[in-house]
């Protein structure tokens, strides 16, 4: 069994290895693909304005060689099912906050499948006609419900991934919170869509197994404790191309979440895919459509 000290030592050695092999330069500037960090939030970060909060996140990102950040949602957590006006405000806050650093800093549009018509309008406004390159879904209703179908179909048409928050709670989930099993139902109805199973379902041993057979479902590693063995199991069960790293900043630190990958006992080439290569591939169609080098 790996001890905490051994895990931290392995993570430090892994980060040093990536630095020396061209993944991260000694000066903290990512080379090649570098680290692409999925899943950042404005709330929980220091700063009064959204731009100040993004700037604070970038200061930490630069120290760790993170090349790109992806932000979701607005300045506050908000309620599970926001009004159309609040949803638009949250997305405007995100767009305004990332603007000075775009395209190094990217955004996903936040949608609510309880309000399909307004969400489809937001999807077109922020993705088709705006700077955002993906969809974020949270906890308004389980993603297995057919209400999500118009949103997922439209995202697939626009060639952008759909990030779905998932968690498996020991005492049972709230009514609107999805699990990896819900994601599997959605994936079966939309084989052309790319779905990201957020947080690996929280209970990652169950979450990884739940999505094994769906090739269009990607596992995200952000937002739960950096536990030894998670990446090794994910690679063994899903293969290296179906895993992406993230942080859930500002609720979690960049360093603790990167440690999950760099401290894992997997090949360096696999670490590079998880830390950046896979997310780059998923976002490449949306970036190229906007003339942004991937």
Can you walk me through this structure?
By secondary structure, this protein is of the alpha/beta class. It has a single domain, classed as Alpha-Beta Barrel (TIM Barrel), CATH 3.20.20. Helices cover 43% and strands 14% of the residues. It contains 10 helices and 9 strands. 50% of the residues are buried.
Strand content: 5-15%
Oligomer category: single chain
Shape: globular
The helix-strand sequence is: HEHEHEHEHEHEHEHEEHH
CATH domain fold name? TIM Barrel
What spatial order of strands do you see in the largest sheet? Answer: 8-7-6-5-4-3-2-1-9
Mean pLDDT: 91
CATH superfamily: Metal-dependent hydrolases
**Total of DSSP H or I helical runs spanning 4+ residues:** 10
User: Which CATH architecture?
Assistant: Alpha-Beta Barrel
Ends: how far apart?
39 Å
* Text of the CATH class: Alpha Beta
Describe the main β-sheet briefly.
9 strands, parallel
Low-confidence stretches: 19-31
Portion of residues in helices? Answer: 40-55%
Got a strand count? Answer: 9
Radius of gyration: 18 Å
The overall number of domains is 1
| Alpha-beta classification | alpha/beta
Task: Looking at this protein, list some descriptive labels.
10 helices; TIM Barrel; nine-stranded parallel β-sheet; alpha/beta; 294 residues; single chain; globular
Summarize this, please?
With 294 residues, the protein is α/β, with parallel strands linked by helices. Helices cover 43% and strands 14% of the residues. It has a nine-stranded parallel β-sheet with strand order 8-7-6-5-4-3-2-1-9.
